[in-house]
């Protein structure tokens, strides 16, 4: 029996302009009909380092484990590559900070997507550390 659910559609809040400039911030939404099932925001800071920070990435709990997080993560990579290519900058790294205790599933998700834990910021958050995860573009 085929899946009757409509496929989620990616909505880009701000299109990458023909002549982009840094710093650049982008917001993405994944919609299933009119319902937002996942969101993400990423940032490319000023400079020629080719680094992207994922500011946040979340999937609605009712829509988790359906590939929405992976779809929005792929969109971040694709858009960042497009941005850096148009600026003639080599994309190098993408990083994200995540909560140590409350984001166990998020940590596993990042590992599946090629991220590695590279640093811990002790006691940054109340009763938990912040973990820094990093992934190379290539």
Supply the key terms.
single chain; 138 residues; alpha+beta; 7-stranded mixed sheet; 7 strands; 42% strand; globular; disordered N terminus
Report the helical percentage: 10-25%
Calculate Rg over CA atoms: 16 Å
Low-confidence stretches: 1-6
Terminal CA distance: 39 Å
Please write the string of helix (H) and strand (E) elements. EEEEHEHEE
Strand content: 35-45%
The total count of strands amounts to: 7
Please, could you describe this protein's structure?
- It contains 2 helices and 7 strands, in the order E-E-E-E-H-E-H-E-E.
- The chain is an alpha+beta fold and 138 residues long.
- A hairpin with a 6-residue loop joins strand 3 and strand 4 (51-59).
- The N and C termini lie far apart (39 Å).
- Mean pLDDT is 89; it is low at 1-6.
Itemize the secondary structure elements and their pairings.
Layout: E1 9-12, E2 24-32, E3 35-44, E4 51-59, H1 68-86, E5 93-99, H2 104-112, E6 116-125, E7 128-136
Parallel strand pairs: 4-5
Antiparallel strand pairs: 1-2, 2-3, 3-4, 5-7, 6-7
Quick structural summary:
By secondary structure, this protein is an alpha+beta fold. It has helices at 68-86, 104-112, and strands at residues 9-12, 24-32, 35-44, 51-59, 93-99, 116-125, 128-136.
